[in-house]
Amino acid sequence: ASANRPVLRSATPACNDLRKVRFSALPASRLEVAEIAKLWRGASKPMLLSGASANESEFRAKAPGQQVVHLATHGFLLGEQCGAGGLIGEAAQQSPLVLSGLALAGANRRDRLADDAEDGLLTAEEIAGLNLEGVEWVVLSGCDTGRGQIRGSEGVLGLRRAFQTAGAATVIVSLWEVEDKAAHEWMRSLYANRFHRNKNTAESLREASLGVLKRRRASGVSTHPFFWAAFVGAGDWR
């Protein structure tokens, strides 16, 4: 990305070109997880997965039993037209949860992998099959992680629904694209409020947004909601 172009934590692939999509590097995401680890005040030492270790197998093995699961990576969301054709057409007819997901290690090499190998794309359908009972927070620090397919009385079917189906008490997601550095700043504020100021979930979310807005206003930079209002919580407010 150019120096003046924001780095977004998303990709918008066309259905037939999903294997060709490349997810760009997210420099602020590594800083984000390192700072969150320093802010952490839990019963156990935080477990960090980055680089090649942040793959599907490790996530499936390590996420269950954690107090908080934080994912700072690209989100992806395929359009409704993908349900009728493309690489996942028949599967999408059975479950719209295959149309959204997260990019993990190996996602940029999936076109060179064997058909039975992990492709680095963790879909909402795969997440829904995990056992995340006891996980208090799942935080999805990527673009569009709160969006999904709308199916009649079922509501929005995507990553939020998948993590709650898996058992997570609260899922924190984004409603639109988020910029890498802005997401990093908001997340740092979220965890500072949660673990150092002992705020509950609802208060932590509110204070994170207000804090970022206040700092941006004081710095004389844009206060557009794009930079501070993307993230919301669903589930237990405590």
Question: How much of the polypeptide forms β-strand, as a percent range?
Answer: 15-25%
Question: What is the makeup of the main sheet?
Answer: 4 strands, mixed
User: Given the C-alpha coordinates, what overall shape results?
Assistant: globular
Query: How many helices in DSSP terms?
Result: 7
Mean of residue pLDDT values: 88
Gap between N and C termini: 39 Å
Find the count of extended strands (DSSP E, 2+ residues): 10
Helices and strands, in N-to-C order?
Answer: EHHEEHEEHEEEHEHHE
Poorly predicted runs are: 83-87
Helix-and-strand structural type: alpha/beta
Question: Which percent bin holds the helix content?
Answer: 25-40%
Radius of gyration: 17 Å
Physical arrangement of strands within the biggest beta sheet: 1-3-4-5
